[in-house]
Design goal:
With about 290 residues, the protein is of the alpha/beta class. It has two domains: about 190 residues, 3-Layer(aba) Sandwich (D-Maltodextrin-Binding Protein, domain 2), CATH 3.40.190; about 90 residues, D-Maltodextrin-Binding Protein, domain 2. About 40% of the residues lie in helices and about 20% in strands. The chain has eleven helices and ten strands. The longest helix is centred in the last third of the chain and has 20 residues. The chain is globular. The model has no long low-confidence stretch (mean pLDDT about 95).
């Protein structure tokens, strides 16, 4: 068996295709095993990939896009989430997005993932960073939930099913993230081992197809992986199965990557001109 080390931020439901591929034997039939390495933040996963500590990273793609634009070796080999399954959760005293003016917003990174989704969501309500609020680097959705409970932040985007868990605990759900945005992707470092990467991605594609027809069984796998109430796991998996969330063939919709690129440009993390970031960063040739 060939072992692949997969870097992830946390045991998050966006990694469900990997869990299914492991549990249903889709990797094993291709002569592979996959070991997850939990790194706690999107930046940490991207750094581990760049340093060769993991073979594949399942994480926000912005770091890999920025690296490729700068001439680096990181590439996006597949898209996993085109519509972020997140909701903006606030401590109970805040009842509207406008109440967050002057507040601290928890995020997993200052350059990737939840930072850009949160910034876009708050801008739609007239709040601009850094004039109207500050970001607090808290880590994964699990750590952000702890910070919300401790009251050290005012709000944070929370991953399924922690959005439902928080709402049931009396926290304020200010609404879901909307619109296309490439939120989770399979990223690699060149030169990638095509003989291992292509069957690995093929196993994920098979897992996504299986998931569509077995949402309740998938919820059982997710509940076991995260030690959460099966009722929350089922709610989360039903959201993941929604239209446009996971691309069936793991080729992200163009508008999802375009939104991530726009966020990188508005944050000054890639230059406004130069080569096409998608052409530089995205390589689907490893997909089956």
């Amino acid at each position: 068996m060939r072992e692949i080390t997969v870097g992830v931020v946390a045991p998050a439901y966006v990694n469900l295709p990997l869990w299914i591929a492991q549990e249903r034997g889709f990797l094993e039939t291709r002569g592979l095993t996959a070991t997850e390495r939990i790194l706690g933040s999107t930046h940490g996963v991207t750094t581990a990939l760049r340093d060769g500590q993991v073979d594949v990273a399942l994480t926000a793609p912005e770091g890999s896009i920025a690296d490729a634009v700068a001439g680096g070796p990181l590439r996006v080999a597949a898209g996993l989430i085109d519509r972020p399954p997140l909701s903006l959760i606030a401590v109970p005293r805040h009842r509207t997005v406008e109440d967050l003016r002057g507040g601290r917003i928890g995020t997993s990174s200052l350059t990737e993932g939840t930072r850009h989704v949160a910034e876009r969501m708050l801008a739609a309500h007239g709040l601009a960073y850094p004039a109207d609020y500050d970001f607090a680097l808290e880590g994964s959705h699990v750590e952000r939930w702890k910070a919300l409970q401790a009251g050290t932040i005012d709000a944070a985007l929370q991953m399924i099913p922690y959005d439902d868990i928080a709402a049931d605990a009396g926290f304020t759900n200010l609404g879901p993230a909307t619109g296309a945005f490439s939120f989770n992707a399979a990223c690699v470092r060149l030169p990638a081992d095509r003989a291992a990467l292509t069957p690995f991605l093929a196993a994920l594609v098979e897992a996504v197809q299986w998931f569509r027809a077995h949402v309740e069984e998938a919820a059982g796998i997710a509940a076991a992986r995260t030690s959460l109430d099966p009722r929350y796991a089922l709610r989360a998996c039903r959201k993941l199965a929604g239209r446009g969330v996971i691309p069936n063939d793991l080729r992200s919709a163009p508008e999802a990557f375009a939104a991530a690129v726009a966020a990188l440009r508005s944050s000054g993390l890639i230059p406004p001109g130069g080569p096409d970031p998608i052409a530089a960063a995205v390589d689907y040739s490893y997909l089956p």
